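Input.
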Amino acid sequence: MKRREFITLLGGAAAAWPLVARAQQAAMPVIGFLSSTSSDPYAPFVAAFMQGLKEVGFIEDQNFTIEYRWADGQYDRLPALATDLVRRHVAVIAVGGGGITALAAKNATSTIPIVFAFGSDPVKLGLVASLNRPGGNITGASNLAVALGQKRLELLRDLLPKAVAIGFVMNPRSPNAAFDLSDMQTAAHTLGQQLTILNASTEREIDTAFVTLVQQRVAAFVIQPEPFLFSQRDQLVALASQHSIPTFYFDRAFPAAGGLISYGLDFRDVNRQAGIYAGRILQGEKPAELPVVQSAKFELVINLKTARALNLQVPDKLLALADEVIE
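Output.
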């Protein structure tokens, strides 16, 4: 081969390399991640989801890419965000931030696989036909043991034995609002406590709820386990501190941010399981044949620094039960 011909051939090959690289990149599957919450408070759950993907051989930008759509607590944005991911022709839609997010994804597509991660009953929500055989294009990780009102109030009584008047801050727009309210009312009746309910579906209503409950001299607050209220973590923790009110939360993110105490489902494990399923679907498995994973990990987290600021003595019993104590 002549030198000029060789250089021409080499130059042509070099020019083709970027095209090949771009083609390989374009061929990587795209996961759409849809959440009713915001990116900052949901970051630990995204990390857990990524860990699940990694466990089955998927690493971002190596063999898949991901696109995020955040509703920032504005549930009415979810349908448009879900539709946008469908138009993007993503390979899988991963949904977090409660059953309302999964329902938005379900309404947007009956063909693209959907993997959910939440603490609601997917059968009651109409997402799957059954836990063992979901059917359709949806499966994921969940937990049916969401009736935790009595456990939270029992733990609150251990911390505040004389507390009778309890305030319950809830979002009436949540799909689980009726269930969570009934759960708390039953628990309060069983334990002989008085429950005052305040609705809050906006930042302003949260401010108003705290002021109202303080005026009514409740001994402590309990926050509904709900995506919008989770996205308002910093506001809720700041208000509890401002008004010096012991407040019981549902996720470790709250005491980690300065809240007093939380007890609830380990949503990191739920999201990790969802990541595993997303990877298995990318490998060719069908969501209809993947049973809904039932996570059974719960955790109690106590912030001792906040307890001291509230002049509370945390009983040794609670400290022994805690999965984590923040000094």
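DSSP finds 13 helices and 13 strands in the chain.
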